[in-house]
Write a structure and sequence with these properties.
49% helix; single chain; globular; 2 domains; mainly alpha; minor pseudopilin epsh fold
């Protein structure tokens, strides 16, 4: 049985970029709904004994949609910090510089992919087993884990993630999110991908 993850910061800690009201709906209602739905859908099936990532890799239809949204949101909510954001360091920073030249160039491409994704979905930074990074657009509940990649960083471009605070200004919202990215957590995820 899956449970709603606890936020690692106070509900108003990311305001005004993500308001407490948005978190109340996004985390407390949307994510809770996916958790409740998945638990009903997998009860009495082999999926009930599997880790979340395995369910996402092996399922389709309603099970995939709800499991994918839980995995995506868990990674999304736990990648932010209420402490001052510091730039990436270590192997992750070196790889970003190797592939994009600068952190700013990486951010620009990431934001562009998030802004240009038609409809609802996610923009992801992921890594393969060799450490090569990739930015991808994933519609719906998509996650790069289905292609054997390790998801590192994601911005949610479903309207429920930003509409209460930003209305139709998706690009401005994505640009503002960087100030709360916990690069220490993203680097930890990257280092795990290389193990």
């Amino acid at each position: 049985m899956f449970h709603l993850i606890a936020l690692p910061y106070a509900p108003d800690a990311l305001a005004p970029v993500i308001s407490a009201r948005t978190l109340e709906f996004h985390h407390g209602k949307h994510l809770q709904g996916y958790v409740d739905n998945l638990n009903k859908l997998i009860a009495g099936t082999p999926f009930a004994q599997m880790p979340l990532e395995e369910i996402v890799r092996l399922s389709e239809g309603a099970v995939f949609n709800n499991a994918g949204q839980i995995l995506n949101h868990n990674l999304y909510f736990t990648q932010f910090t209420d402490k001052p954001s510091v730039p990436p360091a270590g192997r992750l920073a070196a790889r970003i510089e190797r592939q994009w030249g600068t952190l700013e160039a990486f951010k620009a491409e990431f934001e562009a992919k998030g802004t240009s994704l038609f409809g609802s979905g996610w923009v992801w930074l992921s890594a393969d087993a060799d450490g090569t990074l990739a930015i991808s657009q994933e519609p719906g509940a998509g996650n790069p884990v289905v292609r054997g990649l390790r998801p590192l960083l994601t911005f949610d471009v479903w309207e429920h993630a930003y509409y209460l605070d930003w209305q139709n200004r998706r690009a401005a919202h994505l640009s503002a999110l960087w100030q709360f990215v916990d690069w220490t957590e993203i680097a930890r995820r990257y280092d795990e991908a290389l193990v």
